[in-house]
Specification:
Elements lengths: L1 H19 L18 H21 L10 E11 H4 L1 E12 L2 E12 L6 E8 L19 H6 L3 E6 L14 H6 L13 H16 L5 E11 L1 H12 L5 E5 L17 H7 L22 H6 L5 E7 L7 H17 L22 E6 L7 H15 L5
Parallel strand pairs: 4-5, 4-6, 6-7, 7-8, 8-9
Antiparallel strand pairs: 1-2, 2-3, 3-5
Helix pairs in contact: 6-7
The structure holds beta-D-galactopyranuronic acid.
């Protein structure tokens, strides 16, 4: 017994110590030094403050929310998809602005023979489009539609390049070209590519709200890696998403910047100068000067559900930093009387923590989004959304 307990105590002490050393910004203390003691104060004062700090310093400011010109074109409805198990809808979401127009090509599978409206998961796909093949000729664990439908959830997906190509193109292409002002020089807080993709997920939510088969009040947004950074930012900005899933999002996703483990702010700004706003580059090698850290991004989901997934072989995304961000977001959930993660010790491999409103797992293996990850996301959704049925 002693032999088990002693290492556990040492590990717990190390975990707490590692986090204390970081001098993380306190989600419950305003810039003016006021202590936030209620969910009401959080909502009225501190949440808007943190959201604005992320906008101004990290992801940038979208010049438009739901555009005046937004239409949904139902291109196809197939009621016998997946051998009759699902109804497939292909929807083109058209938007336009001063600089042109664009289309999100959304694919949705709605399980048949379940009560409507159905909750589900929307994937922001950042890998080759074949991973979200709606014909199902190509099947990929990145989007295991058959499994998602079998578990009673809507499976929806769109490709990030419908919003903006993943290139440092001077913000000429995609939604930046459509909505940015051409008269003024680009400001330091103008939106980057991650914010553009997140904007797209919100336009998909605009569609969900019109589809009576889909329960728009119980939809999750899921992203892997750069897509996970996107799902987190989307969930922060758009509170209509009831569940936000970050799979191995790492730097400027779920991982704490102040730990300086794995990918750094400088490395990400060098490698992907178009992902964030120009001002973010001021924090290269200056993590401690950033007025926020990523636990506060997770806290912006409160009191909604958020799930963070890591892989043990993905040091670049700093699994422990992703875990600690969840631990340090919990104080905000407690304001709502919710347990947050419900644990402060790093879980063993392949043992998800999913009883609180923040879920977390670290699985064995490498950087990837697998069917086993999806199963964990759905276990978490089941726990919280199907409580009454258990
Ligand atoms: C890496 C990048 C990460 C992560 C990853 C991905 O090259 O450094 O931040 O986003 O790409 O999206 O697969």
């Amino acid at each position: 017994m002693k032999l088990v307990l002693i290492p556990t105590i040492i590990f717990l002490a190390m975990t707490a110590h590692a986090a204390d050393d970081l001098s993380l910004p306190d989600p419950l203390k305003t810039l003016a030094g006021q202590k936030i003691v209620s969910s009401k104060e959080w909502r009225s004062t501190r949440r808007p403050e943190i959201l604005e700090l992320f906008r101004a310093n990290v992801y940038g400011r979208a010049p438009v929310g739901r555009p005046a010109e937004l239409t949904f074109e139902l291109k196809e409805t197939t009621e016998t998809a997946l051998s009759g198990k699902a109804t497939r809808k292909l929807v083109d979401i058209h938007f336009s602005g001063p600089g042109g127009k664009g289309t999100i090509r959304l694919a949705v599978f709605i399980p048949n023979n379940v009560p409507k409206p159905v909750p589900g998961l929307l994937l922001i796909c950042n890998r080759d489009r074949t991973n979200i093949d709606p014909s199902r000729k190509t099947k990929s664990p990145f989007w295991p539609v058959e499994r998602i439908v079998e578990r009673g959830y809507v499976a929806a997906a769109f490709h990030n390049s419908d919003l903006d190509p993943d290139m440092n193109d001077g913000f000429k292409d995609g939604v930046h070209g459509i909505y940015d002002s051409v008269d003024a020089p680009r400001s330091p807080d103008a939106w980057g590519t991650i914010a553009a993709w997140a904007w797209g997920a919100s336009r998909v939510m605009d569609y969900f709200e019109t589809d009576r088969d889909i329960d728009a009040t119980r939809m999750g947004v899921v992203g892997h890696s750069r897509g996970g950074k996107t799902s987190l930012w989307c969930g922060a900005v758009d509170e209509r998403f009831a569940l936000v899933v970050s799979n191995e999002s790492g730097c400027t996703g779920a991982a704490l910047a102040r730990r300086k483990k794995g990918e750094s702010i400088k490395a990400i700004n060098r490698g992907f100068p178009h992902w964030f706003c120009a001002k973010y580059k001021q924090y290269n090698d200056k993590e401690n000067e950033l007025p926020v850290d990523q636990h506060e991004l997770i806290a912006l989901m409160a009191p909604r559900l958020v799930y963070v997934a890591s892989a043990a072989g993905d040091g670049w995304a700093d699994p422990e930093g992703e875990f600690l961000a969840c631990v340090h977001a919990a104080s905000v959930y407690r304001l709502f009387g919710l347990p947050g993660l419900g644990s402060t010790s790093f879980p063993p491999l392949d043992h998800p923590l999913n009883s609180g409103h923040i879920g977390y797992h670290v699985r064995s293996g490498k950087h990837n989004l697998l069917e086993s990850d999806w199963n964990c996301f759905m276990d978490f959704a089941d726990k919280h959304w199907k409580k009454s049925q258990q």
